[in-house]
Amino acid sequence: MSPLPGVRLNLADIERIAPLEEGSLPYNLAETQKHTQADGSRPIWLQVAESAYRFTLGSIAGATGATAVYPIDLVKTRMQNQRSTGSFVGELMYKNSFDCAKKVLRYEGFFGFYRGLVPQLIGVAPEKAIKLTVNDFVRDKFTNNNDNTIPLFAEILAGGCAGGSQVIFTNPLEIVKIRLQVAGEITTGPRVSALSVVRDLGFFGLYKGAKACFLRDIPFSAIYFPAYAHIKTQLTDEQGRLGPLQLLTAGAIAGIPAASLVTPADVIKTRLQVAARAGQTTYSGVVDCFRKILREEGFRALWKGAGARMCRSSPQFGVTLVTYELLQRWFYVDFGGHRPAGSEPTPKSRISELPPINADHVGGYRLAAATFAGVENKFGLHLPKFKSSGVVSIHPSEAAKPAQAP
């Protein structure tokens, strides 16, 4: 092993030359080395292509999730818009979410649950796409390339940025959707369409209630995405993989606290975006709406539709995220970035903790791993597909020389 006569290297020498890095198994050395390169080493066009790829898959996932839970969303909207004062003549009143669903089915039929779905799908595709893309983009910037970890503050920041970025699409979408959803409550009167709503509101009117939308979407995403990521790590199998059921479960569980805690902001947004009817209270802004709801209806009114909102948001984001991650697996394109957690093997057990496979296997896997882990870095060997990671190799003859006194 050494060009010097009589000098031999043993495992202890190799360990001193380059200490064993846990998890650097032979089958993933090349992949590990590739990911340790700085993200900035990737050309801009490749990063743009990756964002476009994620945007496309996010659009499909968002439309799938929205369609799956749209009936629940319609019930939630009608419950939140129901006032205790100034009921309009001919308006259907609901005792609770189940009563609302029963009356929609009785008076409007099955397709009444999907009133306003088409404009919802037109808007929800880019809305969810930009949300998922921005979250992934910011997370990638803060992810440690060595161990694929990300600090909690960065997860919260990524989620908040994702929530804020979607409002440009969310607000016009929400105001059109809400006005179409509540239009079915009036049994008489002219038919309301998406075009008529847009024509009546104008461009700037489509952003009515945007402040409340920010107050809802930023905290929601700041809570949801970190919770989703941490729940996923708890549901992985021994090989670090996640199946569709685990992804769906993680997405659904994460949606419960996120949806419930921002319900007051959602109620205020709904009240601001729905056109007030004769005899109903009108609001001039977020603060005015908050005060009047408290004064006229009490604190509990701010939590109207919380149950329906959780029942809608939890499965919606579960379906959206499982669709998004499965699409990335089925139509995988290697852009040199980070893959979603659970999509590739990342064994939970550290190699040094594995027991010997037989009595002759002295020292367990730690000594064996020291021979293999990082071989291409320790001795200056690099696979041709990947660039050098900048690690300076030490020649065995140099390791055999006695250390000089300082």
Automatic annotation (TrEMBL):
<keyword id="KW-0496">Mitochondrion</keyword>
<keyword id="KW-0999">Mitochondrion inner membrane</keyword>
<dbReference type="GO" id="GO:0005313">
    <property type="term" value="F:L-glutamate transmembrane transporter activity"/>
</dbReference>
<dbReference type="InterPro" id="IPR018108">
    <property type="entry name" value="MCP_transmembrane"/>
</dbReference>
<feature type="repeat" description="Solcar">
    <location>
        <begin position="49"/>
        <end position="141"/>
    </location>
</feature>
<keyword id="KW-0677">Repeat</keyword>
<keyword id="KW-0813">Transport</keyword>
<dbReference type="InterPro" id="IPR051028">
    <property type="entry name" value="Mito_Solute_Carrier"/>
</dbReference>
<comment type="subunit">
    <text>Homodimer (via N-terminus).</text>
</comment>
<dbReference type="InterPro" id="IPR002067">
    <property type="entry name" value="MCP"/>
</dbReference>
<keyword id="KW-1133">Transmembrane helix</keyword>
<dbReference type="GO" id="GO:0043490">
    <property type="term" value="P:malate-aspartate shuttle"/>
</dbReference>
<feature type="repeat" description="Solcar">
    <location>
        <begin position="150"/>
        <end position="234"/>
    </location>
</feature>
<dbReference type="Pfam" id="PF00153">
    <property type="entry name" value="Mito_carr"/>
</dbReference>
<protein>
    <submittedName>
        <fullName>Solute carrier family 25 member 12</fullName>
    </submittedName>
</protein>
<dbReference type="GO" id="GO:0005743">
    <property type="term" value="C:mitochondrial inner membrane"/>
</dbReference>
<feature type="repeat" description="Solcar">
    <location>
        <begin position="242"/>
        <end position="330"/>
    </location>
</feature>
<keyword id="KW-0812">Transmembrane</keyword>
<dbReference type="GO" id="GO:0015183">
    <property type="term" value="F:L-aspartate transmembrane transporter activity"/>
</dbReference>
<comment type="similarity">
    <text>Belongs to the mitochondrial carrier (TC 2.A.29) family.</text>
</comment>
<dbReference type="InterPro" id="IPR023395">
    <property type="entry name" value="MCP_dom_sf"/>
</dbReference>
<keyword id="KW-0472">Membrane</keyword>
